[in-house]
Amino acid sequence: MSETYDSDDVGTGNGPVPDRRTTKLAVVGAGAVGATVAYAALLRGAARTVALYDISKEKVEAEALDLGHGIQFMPMAEVIGSDDIAVCADADVVVVTAGAKQKPGQTRLDLAEATISLTRKILPPLVEQAPNAIFIMVTNPVDIVTYAALKLSGLPRSQLFGSGTVLDSSRLRYLIARRTGVAVQNVHAYMAGEHGDSEFPLWDSASIGGVPLTQWRGTRDAGPMTPAVREAIARDVIESAYQIIKGKGATNYAVSLAVSRIIEAVLKDERRVLPVSSLLDDYYGISDVCLSVPTVVGRTGADRLLEVPMSADEVANLRRSAEALKAVARRFGF
């Protein structure tokens, strides 16, 4: 395991004195999302070592070199890149972004077959290299990939989970903030269920500065959050990824910031509530499927699931999401 040293211990003539182990992040896949996850994590100072792994030697080494050239302007860190999976050895967190690229008009579930095949190939050696790491699956369709990865790896649900609807919830809060004219940091709302077309907002537990969102009366510049307004916002959240993919070919900035936030919650043991995708066990009567619900995330991974208040419609939506994902999982033999 890697070590870190106090600056006072360097240059004393006795050599560096070990102080405590450092944090290591391994990012699997050096494409648009993987490279940007590494970039965001470095900017935020999330880990002292960031390792990029990709089967393309030229690509991954170039990305690592480009990132390394900017270390002067970031919190101190080391960046390494390799086509040898051993670069991920002893990582504290492994983020898996490798997978088939989503094309315009293609749903996330359309990607399942190719991505599950890749996961089947790369996950066992990753677990061998970093058996104690927290694994965060980002590759779409993330809920199916997370479920398959749990079955293939045998890891506990807390140790391997998906990025889920953390990004979707950020999109939801952004749209609510724009509509109401308040800072996005004061909007508390979650998208739940599948990270995909059957996801839905948890309006019953949403609030703005402590005011229940359904009771928000509006301002001089913006009216109340009526059911019609809420429906339009939910639709925009679901369709936004397709709009971005159509315009620029991929989403990478916001998802990478969302993933870096999850990484920090783990490495800093923040016990932060995030809607990650993990294996449910009798959550509102739903079991044996990976879905996103508000979850306490810390150094042990995806910990306690919060049973937030849900309306009857929201519970029904969660069950519909579960059934849709179970049907896809069965199609691939899980």
Can you offer a commentary on this structure?
- By secondary structure, the protein is an alpha/beta fold.
- Helices cover 38% and strands 18% of the residues.
- The protein has 8 helices and 18 strands.
- The strands form 6 sheets. The chain has a 6-stranded parallel β-sheet, sandwiched between helices.
- Strand 12 and strand 13 form a beta hairpin.
- The protein is globular, with a radius of gyration of 20 Å.
- It is an enzyme of class 1 (oxidoreductase).
- Keywords: Allosteric enzyme, Cytoplasm, NAD, Oxidoreductase, Phosphoprotein.
- Pfam families: Ldh_1_C, Ldh_1_N.
- It catalyses: (S)-lactate + NAD(+) = pyruvate + NADH + H(+).
Concise summary:
The chain is 38% helix and 18% strand. The chain contains 8 helices and 18 strands. A hairpin with a 2-residue loop joins strand 12 and strand 13.
Global mean pLDDT: 90
User: Low-confidence segments, ≥5 residues, pLDDT <50?
Assistant: 1-19
Order of helices and strands: EEEHEHEEHEHEHEEEEEHHEEEEEH
Strand order of the largest sheet: 5-4-3-6-7-8
**Helical content band:** 25-40%
Q: Which CATH-level-2 architecture of the largest domain?
A: Alpha-Beta Complex
CATH homologous superfamily annotation of the largest domain: Lactate dehydrogenase/glycoside hydrolase, family 4, C-terminal
Overall shape: it is globular
Rg: 20 Å
Task: For the record, give the distance between the C-alpha atoms at the N and C termini, rounded to a whole number.
Answer: 35 Å
Beta percentage is 15-25%
Task: Tell me the number of strands.
Answer: 18
CATH fold-level topology of the largest domain: L-2-Hydroxyisocaproate Dehydrogenase, Chain A, domain 2
Number of H- or I-type helical stretches: 8
Total tally of structural domains: 2
Class per helix and strand makeup: alpha/beta
Tell me about the largest β-sheet. Answer: 6 strands, parallel
Catalytic activity: (S)-lactate + NAD(+) = pyruvate + NADH + H(+)
GO biological process, one term: lactate metabolic process
Protein name: L-lactate dehydrogenase
Keywords: Allosteric enzyme, Cytoplasm, NAD, Oxidoreductase, Phosphoprotein
